[in-house]
Amino acid sequence: MRVNTIMTSTVITIQSTATVAEAANIMLSNRISGLPVVDTQGTLLGLISESDLLRRSELDTERQRSWWLALLASPGKVAEEYVRAHGGKVKEVMSAPVTTASPYTTLGEAVDLMEKSKVKRLPVVANGRLVGIVTRSDFLKPLRKPQAEPGKPLPDAGIAAAIAEELAAQSWAKNGLIRAYVKNGVVTLNGSVLDERERGAAIVAAENVPGVKMVRDQLAWIDPSYGIVVQAP
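Below the sequence we write its predicted structure tokens.
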């Protein structure tokens, strides 16, 4: 899937010459936590969000340093913080440059960008102009749709083969200690796991195969440090 399938196309924006008060009013009125900053041509200049407005003189939340940390801070850094705490224009407090995505960025690539940059939203830009925005909540859109009903359920042998194939493809199960037996659509997982989290993953892998009616967990846990075997509950 691509970003253009989940992004919000009608984006509420603000210009860099607007005031901080105007930005706050827009965010509160529309119940949004960030605004792309654009020029009159729709070119993205930056982004102003709630986090940009946390350290403000009006709130008495300006950053306070102990005397020894104040000695270590460069004058330029302190001056920058002063502007962000006291600046009245959006251009003085906005974050720039901004991490962006294109409409054809995959959802996986977008998630990687958001995690790497530690941001909650990505403006979507095409040909230099803002065309949308994707936020964390947009990734919920595909999840709210029920999964398509599977086709004809697999026979027991097919279910067992599908589970084995999935387990073989996963690094946490490549040791071959997990085995699946199937009878009348009921899967019994036998064998052992070296980490309790592998148990849950194996159950999910089995549940996702078409035709599976129930999964019985008979996996034993082996403590790799002491070799102690704990049977399944």
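The longest helix spans residues 156-169.
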